[in-house]
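Q: Got a minute? One more chain.
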Amino acid sequence: MPVTSAILTRDPETGESPPSRVRQVAHCCARFNEARDAAKSDPRDVVRAEMKAPDFGDRSLINPLWPETWQDPQHRPARRAFRSELPPGRIIQMVATTIFPED
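A: Always. Here it is, folded:
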């Protein structure tokens, strides 16, 4: 059962989080998809996703990306958001759990 470690908002080229909150969320989602692809996982294999954010108001930036990643409403994972301190300037951190179907 693959579980990601903290997926942050860093730009892979600079190692820094972009100042734009929208770009931070996009980077976090891109890093999540890269990790999922590296594990040869389908979005339907993800059973739980946790989002940590210092400000729950930033959930409005995350919510539109949910149906983009999981287009089939019947195969969206459980998700939970937690208020959490993050490094300065960062607005989101994600952790996901995947269960692969048996062959």
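A: The chain has a mean pLDDT of 86.
Q: Perfect, thanks.
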